[in-house]
Amino acid sequence: MDIYAHLDDVCVRYGEKIVMQNLTLDVVEGAITCIIGLSGAGKSTILRLLNGLKKPDSGRVIVKGQDITEMRERDLIELRRSIGFAFQFSALFDSLTIGENVALPLREHTKMSDAEIRKLVSATLDSVGLAHVEERYPSELSGGMVKRAGFARAVVTGPQAVLYDEPTTGLDPIITHVLTDTIVKLRRRLNGTAVVVSHDLESIYMMADYIAMLFEGAIVAYGTVEEIRRSPNPIVQQFLQGSEVGPIPI
Amino acid sequence: MKMLEDVGRGTINVFSYAGGVAELLADAVRFIAQLRIRVRETLDQAYLLGVQSWTIVLLTSLFTGMVFSLESAVQAVQYGVGNLVGGAVSFSAARELGPMLSAVVVAGRTGAAIAAELGSMVVTEQIEALQSLGLSPTRMLVVPRLVALVVMLPLLTIFADIVSIVGGMWVANIYAHISTESFITSARSVLPFGDVLKGLVKSLVFGVIIAIIGAYQGLQTRGGAAGVGKATTGAVVTSIILIFIFNFLLSYLLYGNS
């Protein structure tokens, strides 16, 4: 079992608020790791630590054997090219068409011709179930389509890992199922690693190889889907059951 | 004690702001020096930020030139120095009114637009999306706006100079019966071409101020729609204050006692 990334004793604070305290987590290579936890627990911060968008206040973030904590911005840019990021609200550039959004990293980072880029963009959009939307703007698409366009932009360069920030939040069950299936297929197609932050337990049970639960700034449980479901930890059980009664304060 | 703390905090904030702006400017200049400029985006911004500002620049400079002439021409004729009105209007237009007025109105229109656009991109995670794609927001967003304004503001200033002089000439002719020939002769004798160029140097600096302050405020946006509003207001207020301060400094440096 190879490790793609390792968070080592990481502490993060936003102003006075401590978000992570001595957090340690392994992200297994070639697997889908889902991170669950309460809203505001710092799940999305883990994704930003993994691609260097956020620096920890202390501790180390190791990606593919490299400590990225002290990396210069120039080297981080190189690292980020190998990591796709699908944002919670997709973060598509609203002044660009869907085709231009997906093509942007190819135009900026490769020497591919226009024809090659168009072909790859079209194939990538097809792979996430979006055909013939290249000329449309993000504002002209539904929420689920925008999410998939965000996925396409994240994976178009064939990254080693893809980070998904709440990919199914606010979507209906059918689209949620489609997106979950898309994440699994994309991971297989890229033969890479995926880290998914989500609250959607049904979706997580469908796609996760490993689940990590974040609570009060630390990982309180880690394991396969079955291990987590059977976890004796009362925090995990309260969260999975959505119960008001238990150690998690409401 | 609390007052001292407030003063200390305020001082730190000012230096932190100045440092952040200087860092952003240095980063942008580095990309420009490496010729890593996105030409299409820069042309789009030149159109949006510069060309589309021409009506507001036209109206403000026309009426300012006219009112300046209105106030001075009648008085000048009464004292028998009507032949100096053309010089006075063109002198003030090229050295102060043209660069200042166009900079202030462009700061209000364009500085606000830059801050609002970049601020909205921050709160919708589009800036983080650029970074996550391995792209520099400075190169992608700041450099095109900076180059566009540095080119377009001097052009708008030339336009403002001409419009305010023509407006002044028209009013001087209507109200004080100063002939066009007399007005132009006076203008040419009083206003050296070098002063026009120095006015353009000012507008170039003002262009840098508007673009960088707008971009910095936008990129520092926190907290959703309210944050965007705050960034936009901050960009306009800070740009206008800096334009006035730099106008004084540049006038002192460029014109000295002349």
Summarize the structure.
Chain A is α/β, with parallel strands linked by helices and 250 residues long. Chain A has 9 helices and 10 strands.
Explain what the structure shows.
The complex is a heterodimer of chains A (250) and B (258). By secondary structure, chain A is α/β, with parallel strands linked by helices. Chain A has helices at residues 43-50, 73-80, 98-109, 114-127, 143-155, 173-190, 201-207, 225-229, 234-241, and strands at residues 3-14, 17-28, 32-37, 58-63, 66-67, 83-86, 161-165, 193-197, 210-215, 218-223. The radius of gyration of chain A is 18 Å and the shape is globular. Chain B is mainly α and 258 residues long. Chain B has one domain (2-255). Classes of the chains: A alpha/beta (250), B mainly alpha (258).
Topology:
The complex is a heterodimer of chains A (250) and B (258).
Chain A: E1 3-14, E2 17-28, E3 32-37, H1 43-50, E4 58-63, E5 66-67, H2 73-80, E6 83-86, H3 98-109, H4 114-127, H5 143-155, E7 161-165, H6 173-190, E8 193-197, H7 201-207, E9 210-215, E10 218-223, H8 225-229, H9 234-241
Parallel strand pairs in A: 3-8, 3-9, 6-7, 7-8
Antiparallel strand pairs in A: 1-2, 1-4, 4-5, 9-10
Chain B: H1 2-33, H2 39-50, H3 54-78, H4 85-123, H5 126-132, H6 137-176, H7 180-190, H8 193-219, H9 224-255
Helix pairs in contact in B: 1-6, 2-6, 3-4, 3-6, 4-6, 4-7, 4-8, 4-9, 6-8, 8-9
Q: Which key features would you list for this structure?
A:
heterodimer; A: alpha/beta; 4-stranded antiparallel β-sheet; 37% helix; B: mainly alpha
User: How do the helices and strands follow one another from N- to C-terminus of chain B?
Assistant: HHHHHHHHH
Average pLDDT metric of chain A: 93
Total strands of chain B: the figure is 0
**Distance between the ends of chain B:** 48 Å
Q: What is the percent of helical residues of chain A?
A: 25-40%
Unreliable residue stretches of chain A? none
